Amino acid sequence: MSLTTPDAATIVGPVLTPGDAGYAEELAGFNVATVQAPDVVVGATSADDVAAAVRHARAHGLRIGVRATGHGPVVEGHGLLTITTSRMTEVTVDPIARTARVGAGARWRDVIAATAPHGLTGLVGSSSSVGVVGYTLGGGLSPLGRQFGYAADRVRSIEVVTADGTVRTVDAGAGSDLFWALLGGRDGCGIVTALEFDLVGLTTLYGGGIYFAGGAAEQVLHAWRRWAPTLPEEAGTSVAILRLPPDPMLPPPLQGQIAVHVRFTYTGDPAVGAQLLAPMTSVGPVLLQNVDVMPVAALDAVHMDPPGPMPSIERGSTVRDLPADAVDAILAVAGPTVASPLAIVEIRLLGGRLTAPQGVPNSVTARSASYSVLAIAVPAGPAAELAGPHVGAVNAAVAPWADGGLLNFAGSTPAADLPGLWSTDDHDRLCAIRERHDPGGIFRRTV
């Protein structure tokens, strides 16, 4: 079908309604456990398409959701127009200024391909299949973050379509309130169609992971708890309890196993990195180790996140510290002796330059936290109905030490708890900016 806006502007990309060929495919994303069925879906090819779709939605009383790679939350309900930005994949690199400009549908792997030849990188997360814009607007936690901050800290300017259907460019000067709210608040102020951000000069690092036998979870997690805070900010680390499927694509020692995965990155001298990691190399029986010098373009090899679509339910918290009691509480609900649909329970070291904005003021959460705890379950098979409760149990286990959370890891956090990610002052400011720029509430609001 075609869609004509009140000012007679037309949309170049596809406009689909339920029952049209390609409708379901247009909405497909990474998390196949989430399904949405909007009244209209617009496959935007440009900021002008997005603006025209917003004007149409306003004229017809429709709410607006946006979808890029399908890693993020889903807008549900009737009276909804969803804009997909997956076609907007342009990436432009200025190697002299050390900046990149990316479209709303670009994934980190697109950015890596464009920046690596220049010896540059953005603050990519644990998986390069994730979309750049949603990741960055939610903060953007990279394995390199302790040294360089959140991805949001490096944004120079944002191209955004506001609720009046106008394409605007905002930065720390022009439209600074909107700029502040988008960088960390992510939703509810407009639809971001492009970002420009600073790159860092980095070509290689020392990193990878050590997979320990699941039965050693208690000694590995407690050893990691004591070791991780001793690291300099040039080092990043996380530890995860993994319940791995019998997938022939996995290395044979890991197929169908419960494993404890210690991840590590270090951007300095590899010999120093090896010395820093040494205390963790023999804390339990090793199934597999793949730590070495690697190109930054191969950063995916550190976490080895699943590359393809899968069903999942997730929820994360951040904690101010990680005493022995907190580790024991996690093991009690997610350790290797627990029958569980949990695929991943991860503890990630924060701190370093994540504790304060590194370039521009923004509304990124969890600045005061020392660790992130994330639980991901697969709602499939006979234990599918247990996925949500087990994810909730991990977060409840660390509640005594909780200190907010990361918006990108909020997942199934109840809506009533989401305002607690921000300080009262920051949440009040965020709500006021959203109300000012979208008084009719046509954009999806996380909180």
Automatic annotation (TrEMBL):
The keyword Oxidoreductase applies. Its cofactor is FAD. Residues 34-202 form the FAD-binding PCMH-type domain. Its EC number is 1.5.3.-. Keywords: FAD, Flavoprotein, Oxidoreductase. GO terms for molecular function: FAD binding; oxidoreductase activity. InterPro entries: FAD-bd_PCMH (IPR016166), FAD-bd_PCMH-like_sf (IPR036318), FAD-bd_PCMH_sub1 (IPR016167), FAD-bd_PCMH_sub2 (IPR016169), FAD-linked_Oxidoreductase (IPR050416), Oxid_FAD_bind_N (IPR006094), Oxy_OxRdtase_FAD_BS (IPR006093). The keyword Flavoprotein applies. Pfam families: FAD_binding_4 (PF01565). Belongs to the oxygen-dependent FAD-linked oxidoreductase family. This is Mitomycin radical oxidase. It comes from Gordonia insulae. The lineage of its organism: Bacteria, Bacillati, Actinomycetota, Actinomycetes, Mycobacteriales.
